[in-house]
Write a structure and sequence with these properties.
The chain is of the alpha/beta class. Helices cover 48% and strands 18% of the residues. Strand 4 (185-191), helix 9 and strand 5 form a beta-alpha-beta unit.
C-alpha cells in the first residue's frame, strides 16, 4: 500500500512540472503515462472492490421484495399455481447446471453425478431448485432472506430422508455469509434472483468471493428490453396473471452484456449465454438463440487468485517501470 501512495504522490509531482517542459514532451508524456493512469484506476477499483466484499453492513436485499415473497411463501410447492413456471423451468436449468459441472468431474457416480460437490443456492425460495440438485448427489446450502420461505423449504425436504442429509437451509442474505464461506463452493446458483436485488454489482462480487477458484456461477434472469417489459410485466403480470402484480421491476432487469461486463471485472469468464422462452399455453420452457426475454448464463471463476497485497505490489512495480519508460522525460523531471 505504501508503494501505491508513493507512486500517487510522484504523479502529483509530475503534474506540477513547468508548462514549457510539458509542451516539449507532451506527445511522449501522454504515450508513456496512458498506461500509468490505467494502472492507477485498476488499483483503485481492486482496492475498493476488495473492501466491499467483506462488508456486511451493506445489503443487496430489497425489503419491498421480501414483503412480496413473504405473502407467497406458502405457495412454492403448488405445481399448478403461481410458481408453475419455476417448476417447469427445472426441465432446463437442472440439466444446464448438471451438464456444465460434469465437465469438471473426471469420474462421477451413476445416480449421483454431482456427489462431492458443494453448491450454494442463493435466493432458494421454497427449495424448488435446491432439491433436484441435492438428488443429483450434491451437498447444497440454500439461503433466502425470507423466513417463511425457508420454513416451507425445510418442511418439504423433511419428507425425504436423503435430502434431509444433503441439504441445509439458512435464513440470511449472501452478504451475511460471505466471510465465513469465502472460496467454499464449487458452484453458486442464482436463478431468477438478480432481477430482485438492489445492488447487482455487490451481489455478483459476493457470488465470486464464495466460489472456489475455477468454480462455476449459474444465473437465470430477464433481459432489459422493450419486449421483456411488454411480455414480462404488462402481459405476464397485468393481463394474463401468470405471476402476481408487482413481482418484477423492469428497471432491475439486466442485459447479458451488462451482466457479462460485471462478471468479467470480478474475475469470472462467461462461458455460455443462451435464451429461454416460456410458452404460457403449454406451460413448458425451451432453449432459444434469442436472449431478448429470459436467458441463462454460466461463468467460471479464474483458477489463479491474487491476494490484495500481491496485486498492489504488482501494479506498483508496473507503475514505477512506466514512470521510467522515457529517459528524456525522466531526466528533465529530475531538474
Amino acid at each position: 500500500m505504501w508503494g501505491g501512495v508513493y507512486v500517487k504522490n510522484q504523479l502529483s509531482w509530475i503534474l506540477q512540472i513547468k508548462p514549457g517542459v510539458f509542451n516539449e514532451y507532451r506527445t511522449m508524456w501522454f504515450k508513456s503515462y496512458r498506461t500509468t493512469f490505467s494502472c492507477l484506476n485498476r488499483i483503485k477499483s481492486f482496492r475498493y472492490r476488495w473492501a466491499r466484499l467483506y462488508s456486511t453492513s451493506q445489503t443487496t436485499v430489497d425489503s419491498g421484495e421480501v414483503k412480496t415473497f413473504l405473502a407467497l411463501a406458502h405457495k412454492w410447492w403448488d405445481e399448478q399455481g403461481i410458481y408453475a413456471p419455476l417448476h417447469s423451468m427445472n426441465d432446463l436449468r437442472v440439466p444446464f447446471i448438471r451438464d456444465n459441472l460434469l465437465k469438471t468431474i473426471p469420474n462421477h457416480q451413476p445416480g449421483k453425478p454431482l456427489f462431492g460437490m458443494k453448491i450454494l443456492d442463493v435466493g432458494c425460495g421454497g427449495g424448488l431448485l435446491t432439491e433436484p440438485l441435492g438428488r443429483l448427489g450434491a451437498s447444497v446450502i440454500g439461503i433466502d432472506p425470507v423466513d417463511e420461505n425457508i420454513k416451507t423449504a425445510q418442511c418439504h425436504k423433511s419428507f425425504d430422508p436423503v435430502l434431509d442429509k444433503r441439504i441445509e437451509y439458512r435464513v440470511c442474505s449472501l452478504e451475511e455469509i460471505v466471510e465465513e464461506t469465502a472460496e467454499t463452493f464449487d458452484a453458486v446458483v442464482a436463478s431468477e434472483v438478480v432481477e430482485h436485488v438492489i445492488d447487482l454489482e455487490t451481489f455478483l462480487q459476493c457470488c465470486c468471493q464464495v466460489l472456489k477458484p475455477s468454480g462455476s456461477l449459474f444465473i437465470t434472469t430477464i433481459n432489459k428490453t422493450q419486449l421483456s417489459y411488454a411480455l414480462g410485466i404488462v402481459f405476464s403480470e397485468q393481463i394474463a396473471g401468470i405471476v402476481p402484480k408487482g413481482t418484477h421491476t423492469w428497471e432491475k432487469f439486466v442485459s447479458p452484456e451488462t451482466l457479462e461486463s460485471i462478471l468479467e471485472s470480478n474475475g469470472l469468464s462467461v462461458q455460455t449465454v443462451v435464451g429461454m422462452l416460456y410458452n404460457p399455453f403449454s406451460g413448458y420452457w425451451h432453449w432459444s438463440e434469442n436472449t431478448s426475454l429470459n436467458y441463462a448464463a454460466h461463468a467460471v471463476k479464474s483458477g489463479v487468485q491474487m491476494s490484495a497485497e500481491f496485486a498492489f505490489k504488482g501494479e506498483t512495480e508496473e507503475l514505477q517501470a512506466n514512470a521510467c519508460t522515457n529517459p528524456a522525460v525522466h531526466e528533465e523531471l529530475k531538474k
